[in-house]
Design brief:
Length: about 550
């Protein structure tokens, strides 16, 4: 298959300011029009894209390379934040938005290599790729919210482009992992495999101090004593505002009184005394009722304005200080793991599957207009990291390409379920397979919980438990104590024993042809699962 040389200068560059699109004229490594300048300069093994503007409010940059495509090309792209059961190898779809990176594989040559192309993690621009019959485009969204960024003469390295030529004899999966290693050369990884329990998918926000301690006792009874200790994660519902209009998904202030959780530092200490490590959830940008309007993002950013709550503006120093202080407080209470949630939806006003090429509504902007959305999100993530100290941090509904190197874990898929097997099948298996190339190359890739309740068919849920445990990914289980019989406890003990030890990354062997791969290479063994059983799929 032909390798695309995208480390050479592009064949054309266009820029979009608030006044419209304009073609830029080449001048050496630079492309210019008016006061807009885009430099595409080869630096070692990457193409560095730098932008500058004095008066123009820049929104997007498009780089295009004319390439010769092969027939029967199959492409794999990434997602903006979590996957939604829709990650897959597909044929040529010119309008398909592939955030951050993509791999190209010639299906007519099953033994041929897969080539990879992408931008390095931590970019200042929100980047995606499109591939059509005549070429490849890289789109850099450099807006501030939904409006142009005011660089005011500042020169900004917006992205660094990397390409990897596939090697003979390697599988597309190996090529994907090798590309991810190139895109992130300094991942922040947990010191040991992360595993444990999370109460969300059986309690759904209706927990208490005593129920969490019961969950911790059950967890410790199922985990190997000689291994490093599991995490007991208290998910949403503990917050003082959890009984208010937002219910369990409310945000701060976190220093207050919830009668079901009267002593959060004491609860952390009690979990530790039982033999588990305490973890906790928060929604850092959710504003409390009555918050000052000057600290909030405009509601105009949202697809559904009626459903949006008040969200703090992370471009403001006061907000970042508050977020950092909240994380410091949780760490000071004794929580060893902090799971932060909702920041992508809260900032963009929509879920990842709704973002596409537009990401958010047009017209709105942050209070600080001098930085791109990418820069503002990076500053938010670094504030969370700084506040969390030495705690393990899980990002949920966060931008993975901006989380890499900052957080130890990333929730890589939309919610699984303790109520609907079809949701777990669609979300959990898809994200485990298609985000596994990012596992231990960007962060530890968390496919979300195994929800063990009476509503979940044990014959299939048991297989999902086994797959996650053997894949090397973090394993969290939401265990309804009423449904933990002898058979289930034995399976959970076996799964936790595997998850407590480092495992080689599980490889989906049929991922070229299925969005729910059922054949896997796990620890040198080929294992086949049946995700559908006698009932098949219920798409309604």
């Amino acid at each position: 298959m032909t390798y695309f040389d995208i480390l050479r200068p592009p064949d054309s560059v266009m820029a979009q300011a608030e006044s419209g699109w304009v073609g830029l004229r080449p001048a050496g490594d630079s492309w210019q029009a008016g006061d807009i300048a885009v430099e595409t300069r080869r630096v070692a093994d990457r193409l560095q894209v730098t932008i500058a503007a004095k008066q123009a409010r820049l929104q997007r940059i498009r780089l295009r390379w004319l390439v010769q495509l092969q027939p029967d090309l199959r492409l794999l792209g990434d997602h903006w934040e979590r996957g939604y059961g829709d990650l897959e190898w597909r044929g040529l779809v010119p309008e398909r938005v592939m955030p951050w990176y993509f791999l190209a594989y010639e299906a007519a040559e099953p033994e041929g290599p897969a080539h990879g192309y992408g931008v390095r993690t931590g970019a200042a621009a929100l980047c995606f790729w499109t591939v059509d019959a005549s070429g490849v485009c890289l789109w850099l969204d450099v807006r501030n919210g939904g409006a142009g960024v005011e660089l005011n003469g500042r020169s900004l390295v917006a992205a660094e482009v990397v390409a990897r030529q596939g090697q003979a004899g390697e599988t597309p999966f190996s090529a994907a992992r090798a590309l991810c290693r190139l895109l992130c050369d300094q991942p922040r990884l947990p010191a040991a495999p992360v595993y444990g329990s999370n109460n969300w998918y059986y309690a759904y926000g209706h927990g208490s101090h005593s129920s969490i301690l019961n969950d911790a006792r059950l967890l410790v009874s199922l985990t190997p004593l000689e291994a490093h200790r599991p995490y007991m994660v208290i998910d949403a519902g503990w917050q003082p505002e959890a009984g208010g209009p937002l219910g369990p998904i409310s945000g701060g202030p976190y220093e207050g009184h919830n009668p079901l959780f009267p002593d959060m530092p004491g609860l952390a200490a009690a979990i530790r005394d039982i033999g588990a490590r305490p973890g906790i959830w928060l929604r850092p940008l959710a504003a409390a009722p009555g918050e000052r309007a000057s600290l909030l993002l405009p509601v105009e950013r949202a697809l559904d304005k009626s459903a949006m709550i008040g969200v703090l503006d992370p471009s403001l120093p006061e907000v970042l200080e508050r977020v950092q202080a909240d994380c410091q407080m949780l760490r000071g209470w004794g929580y060893d793991l902090i799971k932060h949630d909702w920041t992508a939806c809260d900032i963009f006003g929509r879920w990842g599957f709704q973002m596409g090429a537009t990401l958010t509504n047009s017209g709105w902007h942050f209070a600080d207009r001098s930085r791109t959305t990418g820069e503002i999100i990076l500053a938010l993530y670094r504030a969370i990291r700084e506040g969390a100290g030495d705690a393990v941090v899980i990002g949920c509904n966060t931008i993975g390409h901006l989380s890499a190197g900052i957080f130890e874990l990333q929730r890589t898929g939309d919610d699984t379920s303790g109520r609907e097997w079809e949701r777990t099948r669609k979300m959990g298996i898809n994200t485990l397979a298609f985000r596994m190339p990012q596992h231990n190359t960007f962060f530890a890739a968390d496919p979300d919980c195994v929800g063990h309740t009476a509503a979940m068919p044990w014959d299939r849920n048991r297989q999902f438990l086994d797959l996650v445990a053997r894949s090397g990914a973090p394993l969290f289980v939401s265990i309804d104590p009423a449904e933990a019989g002898a058979e289930q406890k034995n399976a959970l003990r076996a799964a936790y024993a595997l998850a407590a030890q480092a495992q080689p990354p599980g490889e989906p062997l049929d991922w070229l042809h299925s969005t729910s791969p059922s054949t896997w290479r796990l620890g040198g063994e080929i294992v086949r699962y049946d995700w559908f059983g006698k009932d098949g799929v219920w798409p309604l």
